[in-house]
Each structure stands twice: as C-alpha cells, then as structure tokens.
Amino acid sequence: MSDKQLILVVDDDPDLVESVSMKLESKNFRVIKAYDGVEAWDKIKEDRPDLIILDVMMPRKNGYELCDEIKNDPQYKDIIVILLTAVGDAVTSTSYTHMDGKTNLADDFIPKPIDLNKLMEIVEENLE
Q1: pLDDT tens readout for residues 56-93
Q2: Which fold has domain 6-127?
C-alpha cells in the first residue's frame, strides 16, 4: 500500500484531466482519471481516493449528482470533493447555479479556467 495520497480527477475534457493529473503527479500524488460521473463512481468503488477533483458539467452524470451520492454514502462521505465549475460565465445559459455549489456538499470549489497553482493550494489545504 502506497502512502501517497490518491486523487481522482474527473472531467469530460481529456486535456484538462491530463494537465491537472501531471501537476498532481509532480506534487507526488497518485492519480486516477475518469471522464464522466458514471465512470468516476466505478473508480471510487474500485480504489477509494482521498480527494476528488470533480467537474460540474459532464455527460451521463453531472458533478453535483455525483457529489451528492458520495456525500450521502456512509462509506464514502468523508472523501474530500473539490468541484471545478465553469458556471460563473454561463449561469444564465445553464441550469446550474452557484447556489447549487454552495448548498451541495462539496468541500471546496474552484472556477474554470483553472489556475493550476491555486488548485494545488486547495488540494493541499484540504488534505492537511
């Protein structure tokens, strides 16, 4: 068993998943990747992460739905969830609102486009 902390990166944008994963690996985290909420849930059950970086707007199951499932499951509710949200720019054109982010159970969130250094700070703060 590795003592490195495991982080699951979930986004339907493969380039973003790759850049976030590389940054995390450079900070000595282990990384697993998923590209939608359904795949992410399978990965969580296979190899329980310490923290999840979770995009909000995704096909099949969005980040809010997945976050709620995680946080309402006694086995997984203490996994830290950081939501990636691009909804700031698109609030008027989507059904997502910032209130969802505030009222749902995520531990933290960061706007897109992501500042990778800021994201690393949030990850490290949450894992301390």
Answers
A1: 988 889 999 999 999 999 999 999 999 998 755 444 44
A2: Rossmann fold (3.40.50)
Region for 45 from its dihedrals, namely left if φ exceeds 0, alpha if ψ lies in -120 to 50, beta otherwise = alpha
Q: Tell me which amino acid residue 110 is.
A: I
* Cis-peptide, bond into residue 113, ω within 30° of zero: yes
Backbone angles phi, psi at 79, to 5 degrees: -70, 135
- Give the length of the chain: 128
DSSP letter string over the chain?
Answer: ---SPEEEEE-S-HHHHHHHHHHHHHTT-EEEEESSHHHHHHHHHHS--SEEEEESS-SSS-HHHHHHHHHT-TTTTTSEEEEEE-HHHHGGGSS--HHHHHHS--SEEEESSP-HHHHHHHHHHHH-
Q: Which two tokens stand for residue 36?
A: 């939608």
Distance CA 40, CA 52 (A): 9
Q: What percent of the chain has pLDDT over 70?
A: 84
Question: Does the pLDDT at position 125 exceed 70?
Answer: yes
| pLDDT for residue 32 is more than 60 | yes
